[in-house]
Design brief:
single chain, alpha+beta, Mago nashi protein, seven-stranded mixed sheet, 3 helices, globular
Length: 136
């Protein structure tokens, strides 16, 4: 019965780093003296991946709840973040990149003089709050 419900509702789909779906919410930061970039990728099913400039491959992080992930994707649209136009990275920068499919994405980048709307900063903080600190 469980297998049937997974098949019927598609809720058990698990992705690997080499076959991620087209719809992704990417966020992170970069710049500074090294120019390093730390990127996180959230999927609608709650899977979370990371990669840095110096480690090309994706690493899977602990999942967030599927309901939490879906609400974040909905909040992006509901709060009008898809209409925010900002491309002002500066030396140290932050970004949010909603990828709808392989040809359509919306990216906000800030860190220079022009700051994003408060809602974009708040959304970024919500996203970074999903990342659990690594256990030693």
């Amino acid at each position: 019965m469980l297998i049937f419900s997974c098949w019927l509702f598609g809720s058990c789909t698990t992705y690997k780093p080499d076959n991620l779906p087209a719809k992704q919410l990417r966020f992170g930061n970069g710049g500074g003296m090294t120019g390093a970039v730390k990127e996180y990728i959230l999927l609608e099913n709650g899977q979370l991946f990371t990669r840095s400039t110096y480690g090309d491959s994706l690493t899977e992080l602990p999942k967030v709840g599927k309901g939490v992930a879906k609400s974040i994707f909905k909040a992006y649209q509901k709060n009008g973040l898809n209409d925010v136009e900002i491309d002002n990275p500066g030396n140290l920068y932050y970004f949010i990149d909603m990828q709808e499919d392989t040809t359509k994405n919306h990216k906000m980048t800030w860190g220079g003089g022009e700051q994003p709307p408060a809602m974009a900063k708040s959304f970024y903080e919500q996203l970074t709050g999903l990342i659990k600190p690594e256990k030693e």
